[in-house]
Amino acid sequence: MPEDPRKAIPRKAIARGARLAALPLGYAGRSALGVGKRLGGRSAEVVLTEIQQRTAEQLFRTLGELKGGAMKFGQALSVLEAAFPDELVKPYREQLVKLQDAAPPMPTQTVREQIESSMGPDWRTQLVWLDGGQAAAASIGQVHRGRWHDGRDVAVKVQYPGAGQALMSDLRQLARVAKGLAPVFPGIDIKPLVAELQARAADELDYELEAEAQAAFADAFRDDPLVVVPDVVYAGQSVLVSEWMESPGSLATVIADGTQEERDHYGELLARFLFSGPARTGMLHADPHPGNFRPIPNADGSPGKLGVLDFGAVARLPDRQLPTSMGNLMRVAALDDPDALVEALRGEGFIKSGIKVDPQLVFDYLSPFVDPTRVERFRFTREWMRTQFERINDPRQPSFAVATRFNLPTSYLLIHRTWLGGIGLLSQLNAEAPFKAILEEHLPGFAPSP
Quick one: pLDDT at residue 81? Predict the structure, then answer.
């Protein structure tokens, strides 16, 4: 991170685009160098690891120094960091934390102008006090603490001027270079991830739409003893005011320094929220990033409630619940019946007609992913998640070719990414949770028929 981050974050589209466009070029140069090293006697595996690590460092540093779509793309990748060796993702993790802690804020006058453009010239009669310093920063806006005219402390989220243009420009550039970035992340198809971010960008820029989702979740969880969603106080196109949520930090603090009791407690609450939300609201919170979840300890300091923020990215589910087929497939996958599993996958369109597969290889490929549903309590660990990613991306494994035979229906794309993100967070937390019971209670089709 440069000494003065305010001077390092390019603002103009040309400068931002150039930084992003240079990423695959850097990878290509290191790959060419790697060929020479292999010819010089170093093993291909050692050279590939070195190339991936150096490329990842450049990628993560660049994404951390940019905001807009670049930072949002980085956040989408960050929830999967548990799947990769620590030395690969450590530079990015540190970079992102530095950026969030010291992101260059909007000038106070710009903040006030943004608020006035949304709330009108008499905005001070409603928002009677506004802290000049930002309380938090994100990819498209920053948050200030304030006080509403009725005495409530509030969080005022203000969108950066031109955030929409920067977001879309970054995502278009990332789409162009996605193929060049793919080797850095074996097991993650970068192009669909960027395409999905592009498709949902308009929703995330619309604070009024976000407010609708947040209000629905706040109503649904109002009487929940362990999950808190702040009420919406005011919503405009570029300003969103919510009740203030007091918390000592985010899940990132628990990941870094939490006790095992805290890890297990908040991990279980996270899993329960993600799976119970669809049935209560018809929507899935689709941005399982550590900063969006806040531990709220009890008065005695023991683990308490889980606060949930940021509803800009939600999946509005067609049947107002997670697909029953998803639960059915997970239940069948947990059984020792490869033929039944292949039949179920074909029935749901995950294996297209005419595609030949070996049922045992399909079972061997998918079975470890449903390990958490085979026991009463399962501990998610970085080692477990890394093992799964390494297993499915090792060409020496017989099940390696199975992945190319699968077809992921479009309706599952966001659900799939949210699922992976949630599992990634649980693995970062090293949390133990009654995952099987949670799915039986909240995932349609998973519980066995009575």
Answer: 62
8-47 burial, b at 16+ Cβ within 10 Å, e below that, comes to: ebbeebeebbebbeebbebbeebbeebeeeeeeeeeeeeb
Same domain, 215 and 319: no
Query: What does the alpha-carbon distance between residue 301 and residue 416 come to, in Å, rounded to a whole number?
Result: 35
Residue 234: CATH number of its domain: 3.30.200
Q: Which of 166, 195, 163, 165 is nearest to 20 (CA)?
A: 166
Do 138 and 30 fall within a single domain? no
Considering the domain architecture, whether residues 280 and 393 belong to the same structural domain is answered as yes
202 pLDDT band, cuts 50/70/90, is confident
| 378 falls within a domain | yes
Q: Out of 10-24, 190-204, 308-322, 336-350, which region has the weakest mean confidence (pLDDT)?
A: 10-24
**For residue 26, pLDDT beyond 50:** no
Domain span including residue 125: 108-159+206-221+228-243
Q: How far is CA 255 from CA 128, 258, 279, 382, in A?
A: 36, 6, 28, 11
Same domain? For 311 and 358 the reply is yes
pLDDT in tens, 125-151: 999 999 988 888 766 888 999 999 999
Asked if the model's pLDDT at residue 8 lies above 60, the reply is: no
- b/e sequence 121-150, b meaning 16+ C-beta within 10 Å: eebeebbeebeeebebbbbbbbbbbbbbee
Residue 219: CB atoms within 10 Å: 13
Angle at 356 between CA 351 and CA 357, to 5 degrees: 75
Residue 2 has pLDDT above 80, yes or no: no
CA angle 108, 287, 72 (to 5 degrees): 55
Q: Phi/psi of residue 242, each to 5°?
A: -130, 160
DSSP string computed for 366-410: HGGGGGGGSSSSEE--HHHHHHHHHHHT-TTSGGGGGGGG----G
My answer on whether 310 and 417 are in the same domain is yes
Q: Is pLDDT above 50 for 10?
A: no
C-alpha distances out from residue 231 to 5, 116, 214, 221, 354, Å: 34, 22, 7, 11, 51
Tell which residue, 232, 228, 241, 229, has the closest CA to residue 297: 228
Instruction: Flag whether pLDDT at 214 surpasses 50.
Output: yes
Question: Do the domain assignments include residue 234?
Answer: yes
pLDDT average, residue stretch 28-36: 40
Residues 358 and 419 in one domain: yes
Q: Which residues contact 400 (CB under 8 A, 6 or more apart)?
A: 392, 393, 394
Total count of domains within the chain? 3
